[in-house]
UniProtKB/TrEMBL annotation:
<dbReference type="InterPro" id="IPR002078">
    <property type="entry name" value="Sigma_54_int"/>
</dbReference>
<dbReference type="GO" id="GO:0009245">
    <property type="term" value="P:lipid A biosynthetic process"/>
</dbReference>
<dbReference type="InterPro" id="IPR027417">
    <property type="entry name" value="P-loop_NTPase"/>
</dbReference>
<dbReference type="Pfam" id="PF03331">
    <property type="entry name" value="LpxC"/>
</dbReference>
<dbReference type="GO" id="GO:0103117">
    <property type="term" value="F:UDP-3-O-acyl-N-acetylglucosamine deacetylase activity"/>
</dbReference>
<dbReference type="InterPro" id="IPR020568">
    <property type="entry name" value="Ribosomal_Su5_D2-typ_SF"/>
</dbReference>
<dbReference type="InterPro" id="IPR058031">
    <property type="entry name" value="AAA_lid_NorR"/>
</dbReference>
<dbReference type="InterPro" id="IPR004463">
    <property type="entry name" value="UDP-acyl_GlcNac_deAcase"/>
</dbReference>
<feature type="domain" description="Sigma-54 factor interaction">
    <location>
        <begin position="1"/>
        <end position="67"/>
    </location>
</feature>
<dbReference type="GO" id="GO:0006355">
    <property type="term" value="P:regulation of DNA-templated transcription"/>
</dbReference>
<keyword id="KW-0547">Nucleotide-binding</keyword>
<keyword id="KW-0067">ATP-binding</keyword>
<dbReference type="Pfam" id="PF25601">
    <property type="entry name" value="AAA_lid_14"/>
</dbReference>
<dbReference type="GO" id="GO:0016020">
    <property type="term" value="C:membrane"/>
</dbReference>
<dbReference type="GO" id="GO:0005524">
    <property type="term" value="F:ATP binding"/>
</dbReference>
<dbReference type="InterPro" id="IPR015870">
    <property type="entry name" value="UDP-acyl_N-AcGlcN_deAcase_N"/>
</dbReference>
<protein>
    <recommendedName>
        <fullName>Sigma-54 factor interaction domain-containing protein</fullName>
    </recommendedName>
</protein>
Amino acid sequence: NSTVNVPSLRENPTIIPVLIRNHLEKVSQKDGFQTPELDSAALKVLCQYHWPENIRELHSVLDRILAVATSRNDISLNQIPLEISQPKIQPKKTKLNKLEYLQQRTLKRSVVLYGSGLHKGLKTGLILQPLPPESGIIFSHISSGQTIPARLENIISTNYSTTLHKGKASVATIEHIMAVLHMYHITNLLIKVGDEVPVMDGSSKDFCELIEDGGIEEQDKSCQELIIDKKYTFGTYEKGSSHISIEPSDTFKVSYHMEYPAPIGVMDHTFENIDDKKFKEE
């Protein structure tokens, strides 16, 4: 039996540029595009990072960059994931003194769905594609090629629908697909779409079936689950106003109260996620 010694990137940072070049050449030859070049700032950051998971982590990060790049001609500093380009901040324990970790997930294969937008009424669709660990949920505006990570800082509107915006591109009505990704614990996914996510029948049923058709793949990275340590409230309880609050619970439970003039009137509904099938059925 022979043993293969894998060099430590932390102890041998001088080999990182060679490994990067070799991997980019391998991927570009396989997928049929010109090998991209790294600018000096991007290369410096990659060489200075400590790479706790060594070469496998380096390859995974490069794959993530290529998967969401709008152009594969070059790679600049702003395309390097934040956890690599900026120092990591260690998570603090909550008052519950408990940190939960879940396995990251993506899809096994790409899937496509066609429908119409809710607000514009135009025919639209979306393509879901797997992404490597640590990628997150990323929307890709098909006509412009702009990528928009599903992050709080990219939300520009929640009036009637949730809309993401970056550069000159916007993607509206993302709430249904995002709810499904949360319930299925999908953490890494590329969503190619036009100006608006299709509404389908108004529920999340078609999106649930789309995820199940693509198949769920457990990845070799974990992610920290958010723990709610106390009650938080935004808004006011005054009549005619709106508010939302979250508080600790042993299950995922949502209660909705609505007061409209007649004939709609007062409506209440509570959803509690007991098992994976309940969300799809309701």
